[in-house]
Write a structure and sequence with these properties.
The protein contains seven helices and six strands. The chain is an alpha/beta fold. A six-stranded mixed beta sheet has the order 1-6-5-4-2-3.
Length: 185
């Protein structure tokens, strides 16, 4: 299993990321396969000081209406939480003020089975742009998006915007197989 990013990886990081990459893979199985799009799963995880990681939201491709992608769906579901739901997820909140979405997003790691898209042929917003706007902390990616439909530069866009990108190794084939489910490749 390999793990790469801009900084050297530790074996403990591999252990830290593995369950969440696997949860993202499980989300991808819920996706209805179509020949013109990938099946992707995504998990949003908050890392609060002195706390175990907290799963905030899960998503998969085409889960919500409108040809939606996994990362956008997970973000949308998280951003639609009520104050009470948010409070219960991140309790105890380590700061005095009550938690709000904008305070939590910079503490979020996004786990996705496939590199977030940098362009949408449908005209919808790209997932990399949504993650940049959300100001997430890190994006842990199972496999690079193949050039089946478009040339993806999502990881580079996020890196250029200051988001740490980690390429999680060891499950690349599983992530690629999940992505291409329903394709004649």
């Amino acid at each position: 299993m390999t793990l790469t990013s801009e900084s050297p990886a530790l074996n403990s990081e591999e252990d830290e990321h593995d369950p969440f990459v696997r949860q993202a893979l499980a989300q991808a199985t819920f996706c209805e396969p179509v020949p013109t799009a990938f099946c992707v799963g995504c998990i949003l995880v908050a890392r609060l000081p002195d706390s175990e990681p907290i799963v905030l939201s899960k998503g998969f491709s085409r889960e919500l209406p409108g040809n939606t992608h996994a990362e956008a769906n997970a973000l949308t579901k998280f951003e639609s939480l009520s104050s009470a739901q948010l409070q219960s997820l991140v309790s105890p909140w380590p700061w005095q003020a009550s938690p709000v979405i904008e305070d939590i997003l910079p503490l979020v790691d996004v786990y996705t089975t496939l590199e977030p898209c940098s362009v949408r042929t449908s005209g919808l917003h790209a997932c990399a742009d949504a993650l940049i706007r959300a100001r997430i902390r890190r994006c842990i990616i199972g496999v690079r998006e193949p050039d089946d439909f478009v040339k993806c530069e999502g990881a580079q866009k996020m890196t250029d915007a200051g988001i740490e990108v980690i390429w999680y190794g060891g499950l690349e084939q599983e992530c690629l197989d999940a992505a291409r489910r329903g394709h004649d490749i």
